[in-house]
Amino acid sequence: MDLKVGDAAPQFTLPDQNGTPVSLSDFAGQRVVVYFYPKDDTPGCTKEACNFRDRWSAFEAAGMKVLGISKDPAKDHVKFIEKYQLPFTLLTDEEPCAVATSYESYGLKNFMGREFMGMMRHTFVVDGDGKLERIYTKVKADRMATDILSDLELA
């Protein structure tokens, strides 16, 4: 991975679940969790989203925002949010997944002997100055939010 802690976070603007454009720069001065995940309402992605939901009060107390990014369309994000009462924003990064690519979170994957291009489960913490504060490439879906809060000493 060429991105490293201390680098400027790649800037982006993507539509949220309601089609409203959201930019990383909208959160200048705040810490933001940007997490990439493969697909709405699949087992690992649901565990990850629910871990963020279940730890939401700690993120709010710390003034942190959470942005989940996949290539799912907005209507799928809406269903996912409603089904699991997710309190944070989900963004759509459609093919060719330019934002995920800029975060080195889209590329060749192997699953059950099959190779394909896909979204990787990576998480980034962006500090208030827009720099990468933490990079997680070996994500444990069921405890990602818990790990972030612990690593930032917010738990």
Automatic annotation (TrEMBL):
| Subunit relationships | Monomer.
Q: Which residues does the Swiss-Prot or TrEMBL record annotate as the active site?
A: 45
Does the UniProt entry include the keyword Zinc?
no
Q: Which GO terms describe its cellular component?
A: cytoplasm
Q: Which PROSITE patterns match?
A: THIOREDOXIN_2
Keywords of this entry: Antioxidant, Disulfide bond, Oxidoreductase, Peroxidase, Redox-active center
Q: Which family does it belong to?
A: Belongs to the peroxiredoxin family. BCP/PrxQ subfamily.
The record's listing under NCBIfam families reads:
PRK09437.1
Top-rank taxon of the source lineage equals Bacteria
Query: A GO BP term, please?
Result: cell redox homeostasis
Its UniProt entry gives the catalysed reaction(s) as: a hydroperoxide + [thioredoxin]-dithiol = an alcohol + [thioredoxin]-disulfide + H2O
Known role: Thiol-specific peroxidase that catalyzes the reduction of hydrogen peroxide and organic hydroperoxides to water and alcohols, respectively. Plays a role in cell protection against oxidative stress by detoxifying peroxides and as sensor of hydrogen peroxide-mediated signaling events.
What sequence ranges are listed for the domain Thioredoxin? 3-155
Please state what the protein is called: thioredoxin-dependent peroxiredoxin
The source organism is Aphanocapsa feldmannii 277cV
Q: What is its EC number?
A: 1.11.1.24
Listed GO MF terms: thioredoxin peroxidase activity
